Amino acid sequence: MASRIIFSADNFELLARSYPVGFPCLTCSEGCCTDYLIFVTHADVSRIHGAVPELRVLDYLDVSDVAVDDYPEVMLDGRPCRLVLKKEPASGRCVFLASGVNLCAIHAVSPYICRMYPFQVPYDDYQELELRQEVKCPERFLCPRDEIPQLIRTAKAFWERDLPRYAQLVETWHRLQPEGSLASFAEFLLSSSRGGVAAADD
Predict the structure, then answer these.
(1) Which of 60, 64, 91, 115 has fewest C-beta within 10 Å?
(2) Does 93 score more than 80 pLDDT?
(3) Are 119 and 132 in contact (CB under 8 A)?
(4) What average pLDDT does this structure show over 48-70?
(5) Quick check: 67 and 73 in contact, CB under 8 A?
(6) pLDDT digit string (tens) for 135-191?
């Protein structure tokens, strides 16, 4: 059985205090964390594992056959797929979303796609932050001016460091274990974050 994150009054208050005052997601019921797939890279997996090492990676990682341009396809158990965060089978909610409230248990180390939503930074133009054209947010989501530079730096690191490195790791994986399992791929990614795996072109 998958491990579950238990929310007590203490850690709920601590979690709530980690969000900006007036954060729209706290009162939103549009279901971003239910309807969207959360694609992840090795960098995301490493951050999450560092924050909740008591959880097995298979408690929160899954695969999807949905094709997206930005995240490379990986062969697992003989089929092409992409790495995503797991969802609760009955509700479709992300496993890290607290029941009854829109608070993320790993907000401080959330995947890149979550950290940026509902904004985006145009690739190779790290000068401005823009709202995505299609978002579920029912109210205007304004980013505090002093947080914009950090989000732009996050995007730059993703496009120039994390995503290329993840693509290299996927290439290495295909060379070493072309039909390996999700569990072995997750361990491979964690090992790479600890410096135990060289990329294909290193």
Answers:
(1) 91
(2) yes
(3) yes
(4) 92
(5) yes
(6) 777 666 666 677 778 888 888 999 999 999 999 999 999 998 878 999 999 999 999
Tokens of 67: 């094709």
Is the bond leading into 118 cis (omega within 30 degrees of zero)?
yes
Helix (H), strand (E) at residue 130:
strand 130-131
Measured CA to CA, the distance from residue 154 to residue 117 in angstroms comes to 12
How sure is the predictor about 103, in pLDDT bands with cuts at 50, 70 and 90?
Answer: confident
Q: DSSP secondary structure string, 52-104?
A: -TTS-GGGTEEEE----SSSPPEEETTEEEEEEE-B-TTT--BTTBPTTS--B
Measuring CA to CA, how many Å separate 67 from each of 20, 81, 117?
33, 8, 19
176: amino acid identity, one letter? L
Q: Residue 111: helix, strand or coil by DSSP?
A: coil
pLDDT digits (tens, 9 = 90+) for 16-40: 444 444 456 666 666 788 888 999 9
- Under 8 Å between Cβ of 9 and 69: no
